[in-house]
Amino acid sequence: MQGVLLGFVTIAAVIGLGALVAHLGVVGLEAQVVLSKVAFFVASPALLVTTLARTDVHDVLSRNLVATAAGVAVAAAVYVGVARRRWRRNVGELVVGALASSYVNAGNLGLPVAAYMLGDAAFVAPTLLLQLLVLQPLALALLDADVRGRRPSVGQLLRRPLTNPLTIGTLVGVVLSVTGWRLPELVRSPVELVGAMAVPAMLLAYGVALRLGPGFGGGVPLGEVGLASALKLGVQPLVVWAVAHLMLGLDGHPLLAVVVCSALPTAQNIFVHATRYQRSTTLARDTILVTTVGCVPLVVALTAVLG
Predict the structure, then answer these.
(1) Domains contained in the chain, number
(2) Domain housing 292
(3) Domain holding 69: CATH number?
(4) Which helix (H) or strand (E) holds 301?
């Protein structure tokens, strides 16, 4: 428990530093964009390559992946079922709402939490794989189809995951782990140096966004925000715990890791997708805010119970 609290304090301190420099005017909102892009396109893929390359991913990607997928499926399905009947949402709005209810912030928060609180960034690998290889390509294809009024081709569905740098970094790390290959020292050293920049850049960017980003409010029904937030912070972790512990036999630290990763807030890029396709932007934004605030006491409580 002490290690988890230390991890939270460390993460909060760096986020607070980002908010402070934004508040003082040292940087503007453009700094959040720059830091996020550097972390997304350069540092995070490097971190995933080096982390997964030295990790035995067989256990991480088996039972953990099944439990993670179950939590996502149940949360998304419940939202779609309720929102379609209660608020008569169309396909694009249902896609964004389902993502808001189940898509974990595995990048900006997942990697730091896994690295500093759980002791190994590899714990977030199942979530990253599921989201980057399956959920995001499928969701973007459906949004494309909803906006353009035509179905995506099979080739577009297959190519989309390979355009994401986090997907590429994850796959390279998994291949290195499974095959036992080792990067040459001349390659590994600079990759590790760049990867070390990922977590601080993400946390600083998040702090800037919290201080200068948009606030809460809008025309979306509060019941819909409440539903999406409750599914993300309540139903999804509960389903993951039930599947992982009761059905797959996980216990101890591995069980804590998979449940904590599922309890992380809605990813910020869901708001980006919603804005791009003009579907449920307020729902995405407000769910991100609610779940980001709510995940802190939730993760502390989960650690106290399962740790």
Answers:
(1) 1
(2) 2-306
(3) 1.20.1530
(4) helix 281-306
Query: Is-contact 167 133, C-beta < 8 A?
Result: yes
* Best CA proximity match to 229, nearest among 79, 61, 110: 79
Q: Does the structure show a pLDDT above 90 at 58?
A: no
266: phi then psi, degrees, rounded to nearest 5: -60, 140
Contact of 106 with 263, CB cutoff 8 Å: no
Contact, 159 vs 34, CB < 8 A? no
Given phi > 0 = left and psi -120 to 50 = alpha, else beta, which region is 177? alpha
The model carries a pTM of 0.77
Alpha carbons 115 and 52: distance in angstroms, whole number: 12
pLDDT in tens, 166-175: 778 878 988 8
Instruction: Enter the DSSP assignment of 122.
Output: G
Q: What distance in Å separates the CA atoms of residue 261 and residue 218, rounded to the nearest whole number?
A: 29
Confidence band (pLDDT; 50, 70, 90) for 281?
confident
Three-class secondary structure assignment of 40-53: HHHHHHHHHHHHHH
Angle between helix 281-306 and helix 91-102 axes, rounded to 10 deg? 20
Packed helices 269-277 and 136-148: angle between N→C axes, nearest 10 degrees: 20
